[in-house]
Design goal:
Number of helices: 22
Structural class: alpha/beta
Strand content: 15-25%
Helix content: 40-55%
Radius of gyration: 29 Å
Bound molecules: 5'-O-[(L-methionyl)-sulphamoyl]adenosine
Largest sheet: 7 strands, parallel
Distance between the termini: 66 Å
Length: 694
């Protein structure tokens, strides 16, 4: 009988378009799902989008859309990306769907009817970006997870008796050590829970973008309870048809990034225990993809889009790189240089070269038919390859099952190098020149051995690189690799006389221009409004330094402008808009033009000097829905310490640009007296973060 295997990704927030960080998790899950399918398991792979909550509501507002319009748009972008990348999810759940709502409300009722929900008042801090209650913190405190400024919340809420589950959770972590992986995360969770659990507020009543609490629609269900439930609502929990739930639940693994461990490892099992439902078998937290040394994220403005890599090197190259280069569970840096280097070394020169020379020689010397490896011509080196292949099969499987993809691939590529060396030592091309029987038998054995090793690496690597391995498999004359039963993979199954397919290169070598192309594509995409979701605003043209129209801002602070391709072209006067054109010509602008400039209130969270630039400060400012990095020329007027916590005005929809290698994502607004130092714009009254100036 087949085993069932159920795997999930986190459902992604729709306030940001998909980037490489999101693709990373989804690709890892896709790879695991593909391997389980090849092992014959009845596999179910779920992904989707997380669309409710205050963060999304605010992001929609900022984009001038209704939350539903906004969520539809971004959710579609996620799905389209996953489809374009050929990711084989079986279901895509949206938390705004009816099936999800029904399931969440059913879960709430179950927990309530079991006596684990009560009403109370929450007074404390809340981080909108993480949708996290930050208990026992003072107003103005920073979120312990993301470091953004928390907001004070006082609300009539429903509470969940989380404290009642402390002991059972500890028993779970200690009795089932593999429940949380890797071990570092397990230890963190264990110590968090052991230090005491407080009850958790599980509803909000000051905004409406969520699923109504059953029988009390003034409240919406806390977005994390709503979101976590996706793992069961997608299977039909709470609906009339629970056949999938009965078949696939509990999940075999929830794959997540390390920043959402608490929600998955503490709250989720506690909710399930309260509802009397089985717990997932395991939770695996991977590390972050870093770019330019910090977590790749929209708010830091340092995202790379997977599309860029796919367009230049192909999807398989990206998949291989992510899983081979980064130790799964730990943080890993992404760079275009490392990507191309790895691609050339392991794929173009490694597997690609092994495939092309082995298959080309079989085509040339044996009329494209797999030759007979004669016993008489056998040497020790042939047996060593067979042993190496057996070991690669075993090691690949055991590392892969532990989600140690880089070690699994290392094991398979150990075989690739061994065969490479074997081919060089045995010089089949020299044997091919000789026509006598002995040399011919030896040639047949060497090429059979190489082709069989190639077949084994190809089968193992198929879940990681589905397209390229499918091509190699077909070139080996073996048909559809997806249909191959991986449980049967053994040395020596390549049948004699198998007719090869047409031999074609699978991984053409990439040269330096590939790096430049990818970098350029990213610069251009960052220069377009594609980075920020749904603003719809056209990029504002920064004025020339020294021109009379120069805004009184400190952005760049007198640093020479870089002639970057990221700048938008100068506005052209359109004959279709004579009024605006006329207005611009006498130095005035229309209200529509002013409305294009998105001025917003932000709070400085981090300020530090930029090395080697006397005038520049690097700032991180909180806009309520996101934190951004800006580089501002105000270092001569303000010390970094004096700015922390200060509310400022920023131009929020400027095209990002780089100053001293740092991306500046907006411009801080200041008065610029003729010969004096800049003076920051500010407010006498308190203003919520993110408020727009009009
Ligand atoms: N909506 C919640 C999850 C709810 S699950 C019930 C959420 N969404 S998110 O859009 O912020 O996505 C988080 C996930 O995206 C991470 O847990 C991780 O899987 C992936 N990543 C986003 N950026 C990443 C990196 N820079 N590096 C690696 N993975 C990252 O949290």
């Amino acid at each position: 009988m087949n085993n069932k295997f159920y795997i999930t990704t986190p459902i992604y927030y729709v306030n940001a378009r998909p980037h490489l960080g999101h693709a990373y998790t989804t690709i890892a899950c896709d790879t695991i799902a593909r391997r389980h399918r090849m092992l014959g398991d009845d596999t179910w792979f779920l992904t989707g989008t997380d669309e409710h909550g205050q963060k999304i509501e605010r992001a929609a507002l900022a984009a001038g859309k209704t939350p539903q319009q906004f969520a539809d748009e971004v959710s579609n972008t996620f799905r389209a990306s996953w489809d374009r990348f050929g990711l084989t999810y079986d279901d895509f759940i949206r938390t705004t769907s009816e099936r999800h709502k029904i399931g969440v409300q059913a879960l709430w009722r179950k927990i309530r009817d079991n006596g684990y929900i009560y009403t109370g008042t929450y007074t404390g801090q809340y981080c909108v970006s993480d949708e996290l209650y930050v208990d026992s913190a003072e107003p103005g405190a920073l979120c312990p997870t993301c470091g953004r400024v928390t907001e004070t919340v006082k609300e009539e809420n429903y509470f969940f008796k989380l404290s009642a589950f402390q002991e059972r959770l500890i028993q779970l972590y200690t009795g089932q050590p593999d429940f949380i992986r890797p071990e570092t995360r397990r230890n963190e969770v264990l110590s968090f829970v052991s230090s005491g659990l407080r009850d958790l507020s599980i509803s909000r009543s000051t905004f409406a973008w969520g699923i109504p609490v059953p029988d009390d629609p003034k409240h919406v269900i806390y977005v994390w309870l709503d979101a976590l439930a996706n793992y069961i609502t997608a299977l039909g929990y709470g609906s009339n048809d629970t056949s999938k739930f009965d078949k696939y639940w509990p999940a075999d693994v929830h794959m997540i990034g390390k920043e959402i461990v608490r929600f998955h490892c503490v709250y989720w099992p506690a909710f399930l225990m309260a509802a009397g439902l089985p717990l997932p078998k395991g939770i695996m937290a991977h590390g972050w993809l870093l770019f330019e040394e910090s977590k790749m994220s929209k708010s830091r403005g340092n995202v790379v889009r997977a599309e860029t890599i796919v367009d230049v090197l192909g999807m398989d190259a990206l998949r291989y790189f992510l899983l081979r280069e980064v130790v799964f569970g730990q943080d890993g840096s992404f760079s275009f240089d490392a990507l191309v280097q790895r691609y050339n070394a392991d794929l173009a020169n490694g597997l690609g070269n092994l495939a092309s020379r082995t298959l080309t020689m079989i085509t040339r010397y044996f009329k494209a038919e797999v030759p007979y490896p004669s016993q008489a011509a056998r040497k020790a080196g042939d047996n060593a390859i067979a042993d190496a292949a057996r070991k690669a099969i075993a090691d690949f499987g055991s590392h892969f099952d532990q989600y140690q993809f880089s070690r699994a691939l290392e094991a398979a590529w150990g075989l690739v190098s061994a065969v490479d060396k074997y081919i060089v030592e045995n010089e089949p091309w020299a044997l091919g020149d000789k026509r006598d029987e002995e040399n011919r038998a030896r040639l047949a054995t060497v090429l059979y051995t190489s082709a069989e090793a190639l077949r084994i690496v190809t089968a193992l690597a198929h879940p990681v690189m589905p397209e390229a391995t499918a091509k190699i498999w077909a070139q080996l004359g073996l048909g559809d690799v997806k249909k191959f039963d991986l449980t049967q993979l053994r040395w020596g199954q390549l049948r004699l006389g198998t007719k090869l397919g047409e031999v074609q290169p699978v991984f053409p070598r990439a040269d330096k221009s590939a790096i430049e192309r990818m970098q350029k594509m990213e610069e251009q995409r960052n220069g377009s409004s594609e980075t920020s979701v749904g603003t719809g605003a056209s990029p504002v043209q920064p004025s020339e330094p020294g021109s009379s129209a120069r805004p009184v801002s400190a952005r760049g602070g007198g640093e020479a402008r870089q002639p970057g391709a990221t700048q938008a072209p100068p506005p052209t006067t359109s004959p279709a808009k004579p009024v605006a054109a006329a207005a611009i010509s006498d130095g005035k602008i229309s209200i529509d033009d002013f409305a294009k400039v998105e001025l917003r209130v932000a709070q400085v969270k981090v300020a530090e000097r930029v090395k080697g630039a006397d005038k520049l400060l690097r700032l991180e400012v909180d806009l309520g829905t996101e934190v951004r990095q800006l580089v501002a020329g105000i270092a001569e007027a303000y010390s970094p310490e004096s700015l922390i916590g200060r509310k400022v005005v920023i131009v929020a929809n400027l095209v990002p640009r780089k100053l001293r290698g740092l991306e500046s994502n907006g411009m801080i607004v200041a008065a610029a007296p003729e010969d004096g130092k800049p003076v920051l714009a500010g407010f006498l009254e308190d203003v919520p973060l993110g408020t727009r100036l009009k």
